[in-house]
Amino acid sequence: MLLVEDDGPLRERFARLLAAWPGGQLVAACATLGQALQALQGGRIDLLITDLRLPDGHGTQAIRLLRSLHPQAEAMVISVLADDATVIEAIEAGAAGYLLKDADSIELLEAIEELRAGRSPISSSIARVIVRRLGAAGADAPAVPPAEALTPRETEILWGIARGLTYAELAQQLGISRQTVPVHIKNVYRKLEATNRSEAVFNASRNGLIRL
């Protein structure tokens, strides 16, 4: 795990919490975007937890680099920023989770576990931002080209993603093997031009494929 937080006391609190958590290993706790980019290029990171407003840049830059270097890694935002444009920018950059900084320690660890289980943990106010944006964008959205239309199985997978089901839960519900789920999800992402679950659901709703 890599933690990026410019507020010193908060960074130290999060770092102590993550260092003591048996579910993962904290590689570094960075105070700036520059430090984060260097850490990302220096070794394999499977989870990035980042603030957005940093002294020398924006957390989405770290998220994009993570997605470029390690496509299977996950990214989660912890920020005071909750305006529509910032939330959507973070999701489009590749964030699969988004918590506000009023989240407590237990909620943070639960969110990490949900993220690693295949879900997309978000604060309730952030969820409202996404729903508002989906409602505003849906009416004017272009149709998905026929060649890229989802198959019935991919549509079922998409609904499972929207509900936050894990790979194992999807496999059990659809009666397919656990190993085939990532294949279907990869195809869904490609067709929807998405890089993570949140973005796939957003694009699908915007294009009228599902209604939340």
TrEMBL record:
Keywords: DNA-binding, Phosphoprotein, Transcription, Transcription regulation. The keyword Repeat does not apply. Residues 1-116 form the Response regulatory domain. One of its GO terms (biological process) is phosphorelay signal transduction system. It comes from the Bacteria. Transmembrane segments: none annotated. The keyword Cell division does not apply. GO terms for molecular function: DNA binding. Pfam families: GerE, Response_reg. Residues 143-208 form the HTH luxR-type domain. The modification 4-aspartylphosphate is found at residue 51. InterPro entries: CheY-like_superfamily, NreC/VraR/RcsB-like_REC, Sig_transdc_resp-reg_C-effctor, Sig_transdc_resp-reg_receiver, Tscrpt_reg_LuxR_C, WalR-like, WH-like_DNA-bd_sf. This is DNA-binding response regulator. It comes from Melaminivora suipulveris. The lineage of its organism: Bacteria, Pseudomonadati, Pseudomonadota, Betaproteobacteria, Burkholderiales.
